[in-house]
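User: Need the bound-state model for adenine:
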Amino acid sequence: MRIDVLTLFPEIIEPFIGSSIVGRACDAGIVTIRLTNIRDFATDKHRTVDDRPFGGGPGMVMMCGPVFDAVEHVTAKHKATPVRILLTPQGEPLTHDRVRQLARLERLLLICGHYEGFDERIRTNLADREISIGDYVLSGGEPAAIVLIDTIVRMLPGALGHEEAAANDSFANGLLECPQYTRPRDFRGDVVPEVLLSGHHEAIAEWRARQSMKRTRARRPDLLDTQKSREDESREENTKRE
Ligand code: ADE
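Assistant: Bound-state model below.
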């Protein structure tokens, strides 16, 4: 997979893509990530990328010119046509299912906004999708791009080293992950559940499934509703087909 990121602050993203799982995935050739500074596409001597909003009002708006030029330049650098994603609080909420979908694509182009927002023509002409990482406003799209890259890369085959790990993540099966423990068995009197030490694989799997369900019911009952409607939908689909 190739991911291009257009940003006014590549220095925010740079250390992230060189570290940890994403850094290793880059080194292993599982993903190629390239950062491009939108300011390099400004055309005046002050390298201006934003301007006052027509109609008045506070703040500055990112201008079309540098963003369009940057997108066109970066798109032409590689043969695969990218899916262009604008990071904005107005976008579709990022979920595990959406990440899984995006992780199957050959090429992504992420556009990070700053200031008070984008000229609307960036949204309407350049974005195939708009994604939000939550109902709050960040100072810029960079932290959102980092979140998106992290969630996508950990789903790419080989990125985690051991293939089962991503499948066990919270949300992978629509439920929260079960509790995990490591040594020591007894930490300040807080003892690891006996079943995990039993070596009885079936009992361990059953315990984990039960814990996962219990935790989801307590903390995120909305996920169970979502899962139930998904099951109902697929049952309906199957009935229609029969
Ligand atoms: N840019 C600013 N806030 C954002 C959010 N919540 N998600 C994605 N991009 C953003």
